[in-house]
Amino acid sequence: MELLHTLLNNLTELAILLFEFIGVGILIVSGVMGLWRCLHHDPRTRLILAKGMSLGLEFKLGSEILRTVVVREFTELLIVAGIILLRAALTFLIHWEIKNEEAQGKEEGQAHA
């Protein structure tokens, strides 16, 4: 039984690390692409940057949810829960921004037609 517990912990820690790396990588690439588009005055910069940030935060949120598997103390659980709530709120705000940017883009497209 101890072997299974150790295997679960190791697998979970590896998955957490992988999700963290993927999330950070997406955030970095999105930021660089956003800067590039901003310098070239692309009107869709905010929308594309928000979508990249949202995807990166989804991976980071997934890693925090996985982290609840290996939590050993109640105080750790409270910290992880706080991080999850914060990241979920950020994700919600970014999705709201994406929705507004897409609606504004549709309105501008219809105005030009």
Q: What is the 3D shape? A: elongated
Give the total of beta strands.
0
Q: Compute the separation of the termini in Å.
A: 67 Å
Structural class by sheet pairing and helices: mainly alpha
Task: List SSEs in N-to-C order.
Answer: HHH
Low-confidence parts: none
Characterize the main sheet.
none
| Percentage of residues in strands | under 5%
Helix amount = over 70%
Output mean pLDDT. Answer: 88
Task: Write down the Rg.
Answer: 19 Å
What is the tally of helical segments?
3
Mind explaining what this structure looks like?
With 113 residues, the protein is mainly α. 88% of the residues lie in helices and 0% in strands. The chain is built from three helices and no strands. The longest helix is centred in the last third of the chain and has 39 residues. The termini are far apart.
Core attributes:
113 residues, mainly alpha, elongated
